[in-house]
Input
Amino acid sequence: MSDNKKAKIFKVFIAGPFHAGKTTLVHFLDNKAQSVERTLPDGTTTTIVFDLGHVWWDGSDRMLSDEEAKANGTNPIRVMLMGSPGQIHMSPVREATSRGAQGVLFIVDSTAPGQLGHAIAIFEEVKSFLGKEVPMVIVANKQDLCNSMKADAMRNLMKIDSVEFIEGSALTGQGVREALLMLLKQIKEKCSQGS
Output
């Protein structure tokens, strides 16, 4: 991308319940992403403010590295990835970090069916912040684990028919780029319709 061209920016909000894999997904997409976290007594970490990363998109089916974006003469779209904490009491943080987002990647732990009530509550909350028509893709995460539920089973349990579900693993990368590309195409289409 030449320095005299201003990049178009899409903001993607990454939401979902506690320990669904949001931070891992952001860091898979951008290995230079930053997170504001705290360490829990068991040694694991949790996001307490946000995860922030970015990728470049050529507008079709390709993600670009920073170097490719700088060299690309077509002025690719910069995609800002804004992850949020998943604890239920972090609603004010989710509301603040979701502002200006044009689409949502919603991450659900496919190995934790007991967490789906919490997931549905955050799903509805995000739609109330950003509007019912916000483009959204749901990632049924942790498909690399043997006890994971398939996307169709999760769709049925969550009773959500209006949103695409993708099976994925933020750890291995399975389905992650595909889910983001699907969402970016939805955002682009909505922008071209003037919504």
Q: What stands out?
A: Residues 17 and 118 are 6 Å apart (CA to CA). The chain is about 30% helix and 25% strand.
